[in-house]
RNA sequence: CGGCGUGUGGCUCAGCUUGGUAGAGCGCUACGUUCGGGACGUAGAGGCCGCAGGUUCGAAUCCUGUCACGCCGACCA
């Protein structure tokens, strides 16, 4: 997409992608930095996106029987330590509360980095019989992880997310729920966020601390880096055994429950930015955009112009629509609308009013069309739908064009030296090999996709017999 | 936690080398002219120069310490 640069406030992607990202986040007024490193002020434009994500994901959750709850934000140290792998995974990045008021606490507490231990502790007392199962709970909350390096949305010390925690009578049911939630995430990404994802399983090395199996959806950003955009874990009965979550089954036997957890965080807003954004700023898919249409009056002080703009707003009442009646110049308003990623812009001025028409400009293509005012509602509806599907198509094309195949080590290394994106390659399944790849090539396994292909019989790196096809990439 | 860098009106920064009591552009406020891709004029408001010590007749400027933030690495949603 060759674009004329209209505003200098945003660094171009090709010049410096990281700076571009920061500029977009700021100019779209999604966040402000705060006084605490890694903690951000999410401003109305950013929070409204999150609210839309919440609302639409929550609907999908509830359609599968999920119930929302809320757990405390503090975890006593003794509780965190109950599951060995889990505590080892999270200990380096938890924040501790050591005092209550002026007095030291008897036992220090961490601010939840995730709530497995809290749910487990609760389930231990709440589940006694197979009749109490399944538990399909979710909470919307924030968690804290004391990251060393932080970036808005992608890695913040406090972030908003949802974490679902379920307990089931059988391993099969837990596995089904794990996959079901991953599918919900993947469908949501494609249908609402217009982001195509690769679904697959994480390797032993990359899986969640304490999990039996971790699944993820992996998206490809515009710079060719991967972003894990949602995860779903099957815990088997590992946590149940560590916490003693047992129930009496129909056969009068005492059994351990099988658990899952799954989450999506505000990080996904980073994905929206980096998949769809361009050199003029944010581009929001219509289904997630807090404002879908911005009406911009031209020569708004002329008699009747503003009235007409408000009239159009009424007419478009079934959409999320606003009128920019600030006293900035039209050019300024155009740029604002573009930086904020508002999908459609309706321009209405004296000439249009006289001719009974208006100009509509699409954010993604910047294509302008004229439409008769009687046709406005219909045209807008079509354009929004078209834009939503075009954005997914474009993102899919980018994903396909940046997915490569390597059959041997030489190609594998060469591709990552010359290009950015996903590389599909066969792997032996051994952690040592995976670690060597990371060490030598600065590349990690993203996932073992559900859609397996047999590219060759040998591991791309070490040459041993291949077990799995893996997506490799550089990740955020 | 390592390496680099930055803290001066709301924002971006100049001033610091060579100490003399604070500047620019943008933004903001008021009024007027403008308005189809970041318009313009006039007038105005706004700063214990990150913080704490020290040197000095005098510190934004020199010295010491400290805090914060940013970027790049190692670790992670």
TrEMBL record:
<keyword id="KW-0067">ATP-binding</keyword>
<protein>
    <recommendedName>
        <fullName>Proline--tRNA ligase</fullName>
        <ecNumber>6.1.1.15</ecNumber>
    </recommendedName>
</protein>
<keyword id="KW-0963">Cytoplasm</keyword>
<dbReference type="GO" id="GO:0017101">
    <property type="term" value="C:aminoacyl-tRNA synthetase multienzyme complex"/>
</dbReference>
<dbReference type="InterPro" id="IPR017449">
    <property type="entry name" value="Pro-tRNA_synth_II"/>
</dbReference>
<comment type="subunit">
    <text>Homodimer.</text>
</comment>
<dbReference type="InterPro" id="IPR004499">
    <property type="entry name" value="Pro-tRNA-ligase_IIa_arc-type"/>
</dbReference>
<dbReference type="Pfam" id="PF03129">
    <property type="entry name" value="HGTP_anticodon"/>
</dbReference>
<dbReference type="GO" id="GO:0005737">
    <property type="term" value="C:cytoplasm"/>
</dbReference>
<dbReference type="InterPro" id="IPR004154">
    <property type="entry name" value="Anticodon-bd"/>
</dbReference>
<dbReference type="GO" id="GO:0004827">
    <property type="term" value="F:proline-tRNA ligase activity"/>
</dbReference>
<dbReference type="Pfam" id="PF00587">
    <property type="entry name" value="tRNA-synt_2b"/>
</dbReference>
<comment type="similarity">
    <text>Belongs to the class-II aminoacyl-tRNA synthetase family. ProS type 3 subfamily.</text>
</comment>
<dbReference type="InterPro" id="IPR045864">
    <property type="entry name" value="aa-tRNA-synth_II/BPL/LPL"/>
</dbReference>
<dbReference type="InterPro" id="IPR002314">
    <property type="entry name" value="aa-tRNA-synt_IIb"/>
</dbReference>
<dbReference type="InterPro" id="IPR006195">
    <property type="entry name" value="aa-tRNA-synth_II"/>
</dbReference>
<dbReference type="GO" id="GO:0005524">
    <property type="term" value="F:ATP binding"/>
</dbReference>
<dbReference type="InterPro" id="IPR033721">
    <property type="entry name" value="ProRS_core_arch_euk"/>
</dbReference>
<feature type="coiled-coil region">
    <location>
        <begin position="362"/>
        <end position="393"/>
    </location>
</feature>
<feature type="domain" description="Aminoacyl-transfer RNA synthetases class-II family profile">
    <location>
        <begin position="44"/>
        <end position="285"/>
    </location>
</feature>
<dbReference type="GO" id="GO:0140096">
    <property type="term" value="F:catalytic activity, acting on a protein"/>
</dbReference>
<keyword id="KW-0436">Ligase</keyword>
<dbReference type="GO" id="GO:0016740">
    <property type="term" value="F:transferase activity"/>
</dbReference>
<keyword id="KW-0030">Aminoacyl-tRNA synthetase</keyword>
<comment type="function">
    <text>Catalyzes the attachment of proline to tRNA(Pro) in a two-step reaction: proline is first activated by ATP to form Pro-AMP and then transferred to the acceptor end of tRNA(Pro).</text>
</comment>
<dbReference type="Pfam" id="PF09180">
    <property type="entry name" value="ProRS-C_1"/>
</dbReference>
<dbReference type="InterPro" id="IPR002316">
    <property type="entry name" value="Pro-tRNA-ligase_IIa"/>
</dbReference>
<keyword id="KW-0648">Protein biosynthesis</keyword>
<keyword id="KW-0175">Coiled coil</keyword>
<keyword id="KW-0547">Nucleotide-binding</keyword>
<dbReference type="InterPro" id="IPR036621">
    <property type="entry name" value="Anticodon-bd_dom_sf"/>
</dbReference>
<dbReference type="GO" id="GO:0006433">
    <property type="term" value="P:prolyl-tRNA aminoacylation"/>
</dbReference>
<dbReference type="InterPro" id="IPR016061">
    <property type="entry name" value="Pro-tRNA_ligase_II_C"/>
</dbReference>
């Amino acid at each position: 997409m060759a674009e004329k640069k209209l505003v200098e406030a945003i660094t171009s992607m090709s010049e410096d992608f990281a700076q571009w990202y920061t500029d977009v986040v700021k100019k779209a007024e999604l966040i402000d930095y705060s006084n605490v490193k890694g903690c951000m002020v999410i401003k109305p434009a950013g929070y409204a996106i999150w609210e839309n994500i919440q609302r639409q994901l929550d609907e999908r959750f509830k359609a599968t029987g999920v119930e929302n709850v809320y757990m405390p934000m503090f975890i006593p140290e003794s509780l965190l330590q109950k599951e060995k792998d889990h505590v080892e995974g999270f200990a380096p990045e938890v924040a501790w509360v050591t005092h209550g008021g002026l007095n030291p606490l008897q036992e220090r507490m961490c601010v939840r980095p995730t709530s497995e231990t809290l749910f487990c502790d609760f389930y231990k007392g709440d589940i006694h019989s197979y009749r109490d199962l399944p538990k399909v709970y979710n909470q919307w909350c924030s968690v804290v992880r004391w990251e060393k390096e932080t970036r808005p949305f992608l890695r913040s010390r406090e972030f908003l997310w949802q974490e679902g925690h379920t307990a089931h009578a059988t391993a099969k049911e837990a596995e089904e729920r794990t996959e079901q939630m991953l599918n919900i995430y993947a469908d949501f990404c494609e249908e609402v966020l217009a982001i195509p994802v690769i679904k697959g399983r994480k390797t032993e090395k990359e899986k969640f601390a304490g999990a039996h199996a971790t699944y993820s959806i992996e998206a490809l950003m515009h710079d060719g880096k991967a972003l894990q955009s949602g995860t779903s874990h099957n815990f088997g009965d590992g946590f149940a055994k560590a916490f003693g979550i047992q129930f009496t089954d129909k056969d009068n036997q005492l059994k351990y429950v099988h658990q899952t957890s799954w989450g999506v965080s505000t990080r996904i807003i980073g994905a929206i930015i980096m998949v769809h954004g361009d050199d003029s700023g944010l581009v929001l898919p219509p289904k997630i955009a807090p404002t879908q249409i911005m009406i911009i009056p031209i020569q708004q002080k002329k008699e009747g112009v503003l009235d007409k703009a408000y009239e159009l707003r009424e007419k478009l009442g079934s959409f999320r629509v606003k009128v920019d009646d600030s006293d900035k110049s039209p050019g300024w308003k155009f740029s604002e609308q573009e930086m904020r990623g508002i999908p459609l812009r309706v321009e209405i001025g004296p000439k249009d009013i006289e001719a009974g028409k208006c100009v509509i400009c699409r954010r993604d293509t910047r294509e302008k069309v004229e439409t008769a005012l009687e046709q406005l509602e219909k045209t807008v509806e079509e354009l929004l739908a078209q834009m939503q599907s075009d954005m997914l198509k474009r993102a899919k094309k980018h994903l396909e064009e940046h997915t490569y195949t390597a059959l041997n080590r030489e190609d594998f290394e060469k591709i990552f030296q010359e290009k950015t994106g996903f590389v599909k390659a066969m792997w032996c399944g051994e952690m040592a090999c995976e670690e060597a790849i990371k060490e030598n090539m600065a590349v990690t396994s993203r996932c073992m996709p559900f859609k397996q292909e047999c590219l060759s019989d040998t591991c791309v790196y070490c040459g041993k017999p291949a077990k799995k096809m893996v997506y490799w990439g550089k990740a955020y």
